[in-house]
Design brief:
The protein is built from eight helices and 30 strands. With about 450 residues, it is of the alpha/beta class.
């Protein structure tokens, strides 16, 4: 790596770490609520959950077969089968159970409680199934042949005590810790909660994230393009990224380059937002509407102006700061809080790659913090990998650069995908990581070890 000192531009440049710390310092985990199990999927548990009853709650069969006493089938073989009297059926959910005495067996189904007197279960394939013939392939349904719950069965193999029996409490015992606070509830955790009888659980809800893209040039996918227009991809990318981070995402169609329209739209969305994300309009252009709309709100507030108009965001509750970061892509950024509940708002640049990289670095950690996840799970994981490339990669002095990469875990290498342009969305679609070039580095030679942020 070759290095160069950052150039002093005469303007305050925030580092990536400073901006992230500022964002996370203003974000607090959402208040816990009680939710039904399916509504709690993807949420973070805020309490330890203990097991009220053993699981399974009783000894039960792991096979379809016959509940027997081991002494009655000792030495059994196909040539000399043990012949037992069938005293009835034991199905899953059975209440009153027959008692298995000497020389007796009960037909038993998977999950059914082991009846008194029985010590083991012999699978039906080890018997003649009560037919008097050879080895059975399965049981005849009780509805079509109820008489087979009686009669005799020939058992062709011996069984040891507790064979094919699931013991009471073999999964979890009463009083055990089922799930610890901080657990993200996925399908297996929901299943466990249901299995131990929990109908509701106390969690931090999934954050509601509203994504707005800005730009009069944006057209919704599926509509025809006209001269000078492009399809709105950012709002789709960021809404999908918010869902991937664990949030409930609401995508708002592109807002035209009009400050009043944007302020009105943001005000309308506050009712369903724990976090607002805008994309576009934060640079220094004449039509950078986000900066125009929200900078004027912030400056009016600090100047002690009169209250908001009928269609304006609450002036006194809004604090926005637009800044430049020492990074590429994603130099222009905005952050603040807005509305009566001081809802966090992150204003991202409009170039697709800049927008997505900014989301991964700043918005995703904010979402994960709102969820109440531990610090170790707030950011994307990163690894060290060796650059595999045909030539050296350049990087601007004084900027932390994030280049799209393809990571090979087996070889411990990372390869660049596409160029460094912030508009190259096709390359982004084929990348699974971001290669991080530090601020003081201007050239990275092949074979150099880099930090790699894993996106998958």
């Amino acid at each position: 790596m070759s290095s160069s000192a950052p150039q002093d531009t005469g303007h305050r440049l925030w580092s990536v770490d400073e901006h992230l710390a500022d964002v996370l310092g203003a974000v607090r985990p959402l208040e816990p609520i009680e939710l039904q199990l399916l509504d709690a999927q993807g949420c973070v548990l805020v309490e330890d959950v203990t097991v009220p009853v053993a699981l399974p709650p009783f000894d039960n069969s792991s096979m379809d077969g016959y509940a027997v006493r081991t002494a009655d089938v000792q030495g059994a073989s196909e040539e000399f089968p043990a012949v037992l009297t069938v005293i009835g059926d034991v199905a899953a959910g059975s209440g009153e159970l027959p008692t298995v005495g000497p020389g007796e067996a009960a037909r038993i189904m998977t999950g059914a409680p082991l009846p008194p007197g029985a010590e083991a279960v012999v699978p039906v394939e080890w018997t003649d199934g009560g037919t008097g013939g050879g080895a059975a392939a399965g049981m005849t349904p009780a509805s079509s042949a109820p008489e087979q719950a009686g009669g005799e069965v020939r058992v062709h193999r011996a069984a040891e005590a507790r064979a094919h029996v699931r013991a009471r409490g073999s999964d979890v015992q009463a009083g055990d810790l089922a799930l610890a606070a901080g657990t993200v509830l996925g399908p297996p955790q929901i299943a466990l909660l249901a299995a131990i009888g929990r109908g509701t659980v106390r969690v931090r809800p999934r954050p509601r994230v509203v994504v707005l893209s800005t730009g009069s040039e944006l057209v919704q996918p599926g509509e025809p393009l006209t001269s000078g227009t492009i399809y709105d991809s950012n709002s789709f990318a960021l809404a999908a990224a918010a869902r991937d981070a664990g949030a409930i995402a609401y995508r708002v169609g592109a807002v035209a380059d009009d400050a009043d329209t944007l302020r009105s739209t943001i005000e309308d969305q506050l009712i369903r937002a724990d976090l607002l994300v805008t994309t576009g309009g934060v640079s220094v252009g004449a039509y950078d509407v986000v900066k125009e709309a929200l900078s004027s709100v912030g400056s009016a507030s600090s100047a002690g102006s009169e209250g908001p108009g009928e269609d304006d965001v609450d002036v006194d509750a809004t604090r926005m700061d637009f800044r430049k970061l020492a990074m590429q892509p994603g130099k222009p950024q905005g952050f603040g809080t807005i509305g009566p509940d001081h809802t966090p708002l992150l204003a991202l640049p409009g170039n697709p790659v800049s927008s997505y990289v900014s989301f991964e670095l700043f918005v995703r950690p904010a979402i994960r913090t709102l969820m109440g996840l531990p610090e170790s799970e707030v950011r994307r994981p990163s690894v060290r990998a060796v650059l595999k490339a045909d030539e050296a990669l350049g990087s601007p002095a004084g900027r932390r650069q994030f280049l799209r990469g393809k990571y090979d875990a087996e070889s411990g290498t990372v390869s660049p995908v596409g160029g460094s342009g912030s508009h190259l969305i096709a390359a982004l679609a084929h990348a699974d990581s971001l290669m991080v070039v530090p601020e003081e580095v201007t050239s990275v030679e092949p074979g150099t070890e880099l930090e790699v942020v894993l996106l998958g």
